[in-house]
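Here we describe the complex-level prediction in full. Unlike the single-chain runs in Section 2.1, the four entities below were treated as one system.
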Amino acid sequence: MSLRYAILGYLSSGPGTGYDLARQLDTGLGWFWTARHSQIYPELKKLTEGGLIRRHSAVAGENFDKFEYSITEAGLAELREWAGQAPSYPPNRDSERLQLIFSDEQPSSLRLHLEAHLEHFRQRRDRLRETLSSMQQGTHPRVQKRIDEGPPSRADLTLKLRELAYSGDIARAELEVAWAQSALDWLDEYEQDNVERLAGRQPG
Amino acid sequence: MSLRYAILGYLSSGPGTGYDLARQLDTGLGWFWTARHSQIYPELKKLTEGGLIRRHSAVAGENFDKFEYSITEAGLAELREWAGQAPSYPPNRDSERLQLIFSDEQPSSLRLHLEAHLEHFRQRRDRLRETLSSMQQGTHPRVQKRIDEGPPSRADLTLKLRELAYSGDIARAELEVAWAQSALDWLDEYEQDNVERLAGRQPG
DNA sequence: TTGTCCATGTAAACAGTTACATGATTGA
DNA sequence: TCAATCATGTAACTGTTTACATGGACAA
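The structure predicted for the assembly as a whole is:
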């Protein structure tokens, strides 16, 4: 249900094509929503039909047009209305945790599990840091465009809220890294104990 | 795709009805997966057809039978195989963050947003603490059943992995609480500054 | 007898992923 | 001219939610 607002939000910083959106949302890097182009193009159509965005042709090559979309006043109003509502939280679904608690018959797979977790969130943390850093240095094109071309009264808040959001996500990733590290420390001890127990049983 | 494993995992601690599963998964409380009964009953049928669980009648009232499901050897093998794989992480989708970064034109809604966030994760933290606590005290029926009736070699690990999982989720909730609190502190200052700025402009 | 919980299903709609499909532009 | 990237769509499938539907058990 948030895809439409992710699109409206993106376009609220300036016009863009479906392809632009797909690049932003496909990877999900530096962004808070993900979607494939196969979901984006139909949604752009719906938003256009609803009058929340407008579609116009733009030159892509010599005899080839692309379509740019711009947000309308109605779209801006709907985005603001949505942003001002209290957040709602989706039901928790965490397959990593499920796998973890049902590994109690195969502790041998725990190291793989925890190391993959560690690596995943290290990378996420690093990419989030890079993105935040580029925003703070003014080299993030889209955010800088929003700051430069939006109403001056908004500029400070634009950056501050991104900092809040990204530093929060960075802290989340750091927490996962620390969690996995302490779990791996425990696992070292656990496996050491098991080795000693087996050695004690069969000395020599 | 994890629903089948959530079900297999639940049944790996002992037999249960579709209704039992629905109660566990409907609220998602103290659990890592959520589903409605409308999704559970068809999935139980599929799993039965695949030979991963078995269905048998059990007495519910005088002239009324309910259906109990038990995991089969094939089901246990599939559960173990899945649990041993490296975790994979779904693409990030976070409507709360989207709402936050697009509130830069309506700072007036930020307090509502942050207070709702704070309250949501305070409650989640408290419920997770209660669940963990009941497991550690041996009063969590389902987990205690798994510990008591499973192979003794598994018992320590069953509890330890639940502790890892739940304490990790508790730490996540605590992080969100701390994040929201520091954001609210910033907001207090921000609004104070604005009041002073307005007062400075129109003194008296 | 009335309301709450126990108990089990199906149907329609919506959201998201994967696969299919096509063609232009640009730089090496 | 070849590969990578730009650019735009549709179709089929899977997963999830909401709504529809039914009926027994049990306690106030």
